[in-house]
Design a protein that fits this description.
InterPro entries: PsdUridine_synth_cat_dom_sf, PsdUridine_synth_TruA, PsdUridine_synth_TruA_a/b_dom, PsdUridine_synth_TruA_C, TruA/RsuA/RluB/E/F_N
Radius of gyration: 21 Å
CATH topology of the largest domain: Alpha-Beta Plaits
GO molecular function, one term: RNA binding
Enzyme class: isomerase
Order of helices and strands: EEEEHHEEEHEEEHEEEHHHEHEEEEH
Strand content: 25-35%
Distance between the termini: 35 Å
Shape: globular
CATH architecture of the largest domain: 2-Layer Sandwich
Structural class: alpha+beta
Family: Belongs to the tRNA pseudouridine synthase TruA family.
Number of helices: 9
Number of domains: 2
Pfam families: PseudoU_synth_1
Length: 356
């Protein structure tokens, strides 16, 4: 059925470096997933040298999920991926040690989330495991690519930059097909004013004013570099695209919230440097509420080319063929599996057409 028996292992040697996760996860039983609470979420250690590392690029519609980060219930993106990998590899969470590049929040979508996992064995072909993973995942989650990773590659700490999109539907009446995939602003926004305000975010700043407190998270520097922040009109859609070396918890949604107030002409564009300079989350809270999650997309996680070069002797990368079916816009073919939806923007999560 899933071609699990056809998975082949080989033994090219790799001095891998990975993370170790605490806790175990039980296997899927009769289609029902059960999870155990991890003792430790993600702790970086040096694993045995016979471990092999694999990189995945993942797309998902985050509407039904409690974000990326592992938690027992309700299940998250990481939970579903781990359980698929556990069934296929017969390894537990501690050995797989799945680590994501970013912890997207509840309701946030992704086209280019990146993660890595480890195994004590190597594959000489990645196509079978790729198809098997997608066959076990719900239709809202798809692994777009699997490749062998260098020992020093780390999905999170090797990141060079990330790109996020935020979509705003700017018409008096909300298009129901955008309801879960764009924020609705019935008030006509001023894109020019938003562009002027967005320019103030570009550069190296202390973004304390734009960060929510994250529970059980490691201490992070509030100093971040934003390389660009574009505001593009696409008919009724207004797309905000921001690229930076890293982002604090809910930073993008908080920056968008301030731009929305500027777009409504309730605040001037030069309010941005004032809020940045305050270095106080309460200053932003006085003028803007956080933008909702369903308009946000993690589009890509970027790395230096050198770190992405596969180890010597590793198998070829496996890519998912993403294309709209000839049956029309209600059906998408993903690695031979059909995903049915009457929402073209749900399907658009799995095609470059809407995100280029």
């Amino acid at each position: 059925m899933l071609g699990l028996a056809s998975l082949r292992f080989t033994a090219f040697r790799s001095h891998a470096s990975a993370s170790t996760c605490g806790g175990n996860t039980s296997l899927a039983d009769g289609g029902r997933l059960s999870f155990l609470v991890p003792e430790v979420d993600q702790v970086d250690t040096v694993p045995p040298e016979n471990m092999h590392k694999w990189r995945m690029v993942i797309a998902y519609d985050g509407t039904k999920f409690k974000g990326w980060q592992y938690q027992p219930s309700p299940p998250t993106i990481q939970c579903f991926l781990e359980n698929a990998l556990i069934r296929i590899t017969k390894l537990d969470r501690k050995k797989l040690c799945l680590v994501g590049a970013g912890r997207t929040d509840t309701g946030v979508h992704a086209w280019g989330q990146v993660a890595h996992f480890t195994t004590p064995f190597a594959y000489d072909c990645l196509h079978s495991i790729h198809s098997a993973i997608n066959g076990l995942l719900p239709p809202e989650i798809r692994v777009r690519e699997i490749s062998a990773a260098r020992p020093e590659f780390h999905a999170r700490s090797s990141t060079k930059s990330k790109i996020y999109h935020y979509k705003i539907y700017n018409e008096a009446i909300m298009d129901p097909f955008h309801n879960c995939y764009a924020y609705h602003s019935a008030y006509k926004l001023n894109p020019h004013a938003m562009r002027q305000a967005a320019k103030h975010f570009v550069g190296i700043h202390d973004f304390t004013s734009f960060a929510n407190a994250a529970h059980n998270d490691r201490e992070r520097s509030p100093i971040k570099k934003i390389t660009r922040f574009d505001v593009t009109e696409m008919g009724a859609l207004l797309q905000l695209e921001v690229e930076g070396t890293g982002f604090l918890y809910r930073q993008v949604r908080n920056m968008v919230a301030l731009l929305l107030q500027v777009g409504k002409e309730a605040l001037p564009p030069d309010i941005v440097p004032v809020i940045i300079a305050a270095r106080d989350r309460k200053e932003l809270a006085r003028v803007a509420l956080s933008a909702p999650p369903h308009g946000l997309y993690l589009m890509s996680v970027n790395y230096d080319e050198e770190i992405l070069k596969p180890p010597e002797g590793s198998p070829p990368n496996s890519f998912v063929s993403l294309e709209l079916s000839t049956r029309g816009p209600e059906c998408l073919l993903v690695s031979g599996y059909r995903i049915w939806s009457r929402d073209p923007y749900k399907l658009s999560l799995y095609t470059h057409r809407f995100f280029s």
